[in-house]
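Hi there,

I know you've been waiting on this one. I reran it after we fixed the sequence typo, so this is the corrected version. Both the input and the resulting structure follow.
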Amino acid sequence: GAGLNDGQWHSVSLSVKKNRISVIVDSDVTSAAHASIPLQIFSGDIFFFGGCPRKGNVSECNTLLGGFQGCMRLISIGNKAVDLLSVQPNGFGNFSDLQIDLCGITDRCLPNYCEHGGECSQSWNSFYCNCANTGYRGATCHYPIYEQSCEAYKHRGNTSGFYNIDSDGSGPLRPFLVYCNMTDATWTIIQHNNTNLTRVKSANRENPHTVFFKYSASLDQLQATINQAEHCEQELAYYCKKSRLLDKPDGVPLSWWIGRTNETHTYWGGSLPAVQKCACGLEGSCIDSQHYCNCDADRDEWTNDTGFLSYKEHLPVTEIVITDTDRPNSEAAYKLGPLLCRGDRAFWNSASFNTETSYLHFPTFHGEFSADVSFFFKTTASSGVFLENLGIQDFIRIELFSPSEVIFSFDVGNGPSEVTVQSSTPLNDNQWHYVKAERNVKEASLQIDQLPQRSHSAPPDGHIRLQLNSQLFVGGTASRQKGFLGCIRSLQLNGVALDLEERAKITPGVEPGCPGHCSSYGNLCHNGGKCREKYSGFSCDCTFSAYAGPFCKKGKHISAYFGTGTSVTYNFQEYYTLAKNTSSHASSFYADMTLNREAITFAFRTTRTPSLLLYISSFYKEYLSVILTRNGDLQIRYKLDSHQDPDVFSISFKSMADGQLQHVKINREEEMLFVEVNQKERMKFILSSGTEFNAIKSLTLGKIL
């Protein structure tokens, strides 16, 4: 049969006739088993069901298998039903360790403690959760595999790309795919199904043009992401030719948009919710000063009202309605950008505990059947309680027990239990360390940083409900003993972030925020980038790095950093000492290195002048040099005739020693010289000192003059 241990009823029929045996399971005749044997079989007068007696004559009943665990019913022998109730008073057969007239199998998958769609299966004593393809892990599929935000991915050292985020952590919302743009700020980009510029004609009040926008996440997922972000925005562009937005004598707008909460909005990109205006109306820069939108001037020429909507509670835009494009020559077009959100309010939310008796308190933590707690801490103290919540008998506590030991202890009615993680290096080194504790009906686990996770199994058939009733204490305990000294950051309970900073503002002995992130995250700044502290987080200063990007890792070319007086020289060919009487043949010896054209591209950044950027020399005292003058101008010098002065070309539209990356392209075709700086227009110069660059010897880069 199939799945015979699935906890459901199955039927078995055994038929023995003279020398033929048949077994049918679950009435499936097609897969029945038959056997012919060269013996005649006669049954005895005793049948044993479920196993063999432990005492008595064992020879009558002999099996290597253990006894059956489970239920049987509807037993019949020789087509005659057996009355199990008559077995009970020992009148008809006997039994041991049975419950008669009752099936006592425990269905361990009801209620189902597997979360987030995990599949439950069970053995006799326990249940198991299959978490494949759920996006969650752990004994009950409770804890998310994915980070809660792009900010969290960035601080694991990840670069821009597509990532799954789980914006409510272990809460009910599923993970979804976003694009994380890791610049100095971290942007989360969520696309919708209609990003093209769409033209609209012949729409009016009776027959409006309505468009709906469907996002790559549900509205609940979007709301969780928006709530967690520091700032969100969405660009809305409305192009118009004789198509008005607001202007109507009766005050009823002609076009509007609908946001997440299904409310109608009549302010447009760049404006504010309280005012029925466009951005130009707010700035007083509309093309007709009598109106609050450019489009309301109602002119027979294309104009637009464009800007970012940035009031978080109204985003994202889910619908746009346009009604004024049915007059002659009347037309409109709209374009809605993706939802852009920046930052993560929870990730840097922190508090500093300055005395051992200081603590923050929050409402009771409810994690009856599954609870997870995660946070970062840093301290120089050797011990202290991070978090505690008490019940009448039950409790939950996480503490730094010694400089290298964190203990997660709790009681759900089976007596106190604890999980300990030992670190080989001290944890009170004033650097950020990550703690994740989880307790569910199957096990409790604790993880510190990247150390191996420790876990304890729950006792079988013990108490499983964690019942707390007092306040949750953070940074201390109800008895004010063994308080924590240091910082706690990004505290989350079952995926919900606690606002430590708001509570710290009104609590003596606790300060909002926590200084000093570079000691922990400075190693994310590469290639000479310097870590700079910010109130929430840090940034990498790439001024003195040849690389750019949030971690100074983006190098589009081969790059080098030049200190004062340093340079790189590349020799094209060595100078061979020739016999004295052959000096006149030098030109023929080096003739293969004559250039009539060059194409040179490079990028540089500096704040120092004057500087030599590039110098190409020849054996005939000819040269090409590119230098920054004292006032930051770019100067190119060509000397292609050793008997003439060099051609000097200066390019000065702004100082190029401003610390920004400058791109330079130099192209020469004989006497024609073309120079392009920062992808701006090409400049053309004419050389007068010759067209042949003979016997080039070496290239030198980067020496401060």
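Quick highlight: The radius of gyration is 39 Å.

Best,
R. S.
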